[in-house]
Amino acid sequence: xxxxxxxxxxxxxxxxxxxxxxxxxxxxxxxxxxxxxxxxxxxxxxxxxxxxxxxxxxxxxxxxxxxxxxxxxxxxxxxxxxxxxxxxxxxxxxxxxxxxxxxxxxxxxxxxxxxxxxxxxxxxxxxxxxxxxxxxxxxxxxxxxxxxxxxx
Length: 152
What we know:
Blueprint: H1 11-17, E1 31-37, E2 40-47, H2 86-110, E3 115-120, H3 128-138, E4 142-144
Parallel strand pairs: 2-3, 3-4
Antiparallel strand pairs: 1-2
């Protein structure tokens, strides 16, 4: 989640590290991977759901990746294809997330894999109806999530 409270830290480094260490696979903020096994293959669909951590810059919150409180003055990610400032950050993340959902629905729909697995950062309670729709319409088999900061 880009460090929890800085929208200009983390994601370019995570993507770049994929090209240095082949055990770390994150070639983009969202992507697919096909993994062949004996007699079948699995399609993995990775989506960046960090929009749920993106609030207006003025909101002082410990988990606001777009907050002016934690980002340096003039912080931006425009050189990496990201937001130009904390004041457009929230909209940038949400526009990207909506685009990714359209992209992923098409990818899951078109997949002929035996297993279809979605990986996302935020738990399924966030946008759960979207993931349920992928299951009901296209046979999504597994949703792998993160972000929870406690063990259950």
